[in-house]
Design a protein that fits this description.
heterodimer, A: alpha/beta, ten-stranded mixed sheet, 8 helices, globular, B: about 290 residues, MetI-like fold, binds adenosine-5'-diphosphate, binds magnesium ion
Amino acid sequence: MSAQPIAAALPEFPVKAASKPAVEMAALALRFPVGRGQTRTIFENLNLTIYHGEFVCILGETGCGKSTLLRMVLGEDRPTEGALSIFGQPVNGINRACGYVPQKYSLFPDRTVMQNLAFGPECTLGPFKRWTHRGRSFRGEVRTEALARLKQMGLQATDAAKYPHQLSGGMQQRVAIAQALMMKPAILLMDEAFSALDPNTRAGMQSLVHELWRETRTTIIFVTHNTHEAAYLASRLIVLAQRRNETGAPVGAEVMLDQIVPFAEETLAARRRRPEVADLVQRIERHSHGAFSAAEEPEAESR
Amino acid sequence: MTFKPFEIEARPNKLTWMTLSWLLFAVGIGLYLQESIKRHRENPDDRVIPTVTQLAQGVQNAFLNPAEEDDDGSAATLKWWQRLPHSMIWKDTAASSRRFLISLALMIPAVLLGLHIAMFPYIGALFMRFVLFFDKIIALSVLPILFIAFGIDELSKVMLMVIGVAPTIILDTCNLAKSVPREQVVKGFTLGAGNAQVAYGIVLKQIMPRIIASIRLNLKPLMLFLFAGEMIASTDGLAYRIAIMRRHMGMDIIIPYVLWVALLLFLVDASLRFLNKRWHPWFKED
Ligand SMILES: Nc1ncnc2c1ncn2[C@@H]1O[C@H](COP(=O)(O)OP(=O)(O)O)[C@@H](O)[C@H]1O
Ligand SMILES: [Mg+2]
């Protein structure tokens, strides 16, 4: 795949100068040892800055390194070279400024919904203060907040006592988002969070996340391999593509398209109707040679 | 109804199913009784295949009479429940159970070690190779060393069980802990959990039902090592009694003992399974 950028489907908007950088990657390289002294290059000289308040959708074919990119932001995978900083601080160890919603295993299966939600806040309490007077009142507040979060995510209070395996896939992801939000993360990282859901549930979840972003302006980095999903949700759309050398071996993913979406503020329903979105999707499809899924999504459920 | 033993799609009805499942028991008991009656017709003092009467007498002796003559618990004036705690089978069961429970309790440090090996790279580096080495050692082959090192009393028998079973439990736990999806660990950290909270609160808690399942699978090896130790060097215990009884052909005691041991093991296994279900209602076997 060539490295030429996709001709802009929309007028280029400059990134808002007012907003601060949230994630900065400078000349980042990541290589995994694959035995016999060889390495596999996932990223090479990657430069990317994500700004505070952006809803960044990262699109790319399976295996191009999207999850790995998120894991680097999380501090789970350490870059081999280059600098990675979050709000100006170099990443060192797992990053607690981030909320994480993976595609699978997003909830603790041994805890009820309520216990899942309370897990984060109660970690701050420490093991011994749990049964003190202050601890008990703190836990009461956490419970109240958790119930509010559940409601915000469209779940009922009666779901609080259920175990994750008693919930549908969509409800599980709602709880997972609520769980991450309990810690008021500065950056929300979602890794194919809706990929396992059926199209209708998925559309509902998309409007949920989009509304959440419109209301709170939390920085969201949303990884997907679905072009429509990316085009509907993003305030900035980044397409990653794996570059290959003459022999076809991967030599690191690069940014193939970095596009600000100017009508990000509009509701999801309004965005879905915009011809520019369809145009954007088409252009991405053409340039990626159908590398990622373009299955049309049904209209968002009215909620 | 037709009988189709080699049909995969066959659907035997309830009655047939029950009859078939008990058939081999009935045949076994029938053959035993027949052989026993035949032998006793030839020699009324035969001890190799005791009759039902002899077995009943053996059971009564085991449950009511002490093994040693100096114990006065056999006084016929006492009620049966007063005689029971002095009886042979009671004391043997108590001795074996004590060893069994001690080694079962020693599986807790084994589980913790396995967890730490899996979770903490430095601890893993320190212990992993050593445990793998111990896992390769045939426990019974070090029995003489154990007797020399720990004497021939309790400690050496418990050590035999620990050396025999602990490496399996450690490695099992380690594999289980490593199989917990990385997402769960990362998620835990992003939610503000510390190392201990991730290791115990997330990983250990999640794999606990599987650890108990693994311990259940290892109950039989544990008993095997217990019996080996007791048969070779002991002055009490279930296996000691079986070994002693062999010398004077005490089949009337040995057969009830064998069944008793099977029952005990079944009960331990069943209660672990029950507790596992009870403690981990969220757990779904996949
Ligand atoms: N720890 C690792 N060691 C070696 N290769 C890895 C490791 N983690 C990921 N990879 C490789 O990195 C590539 C990108 O993986 P991933 O980020 O999961 O892709 P995506 O999420 O875009 O589908 C894959 O080819 C994968 O095999
Ligand atoms: Mg992925």
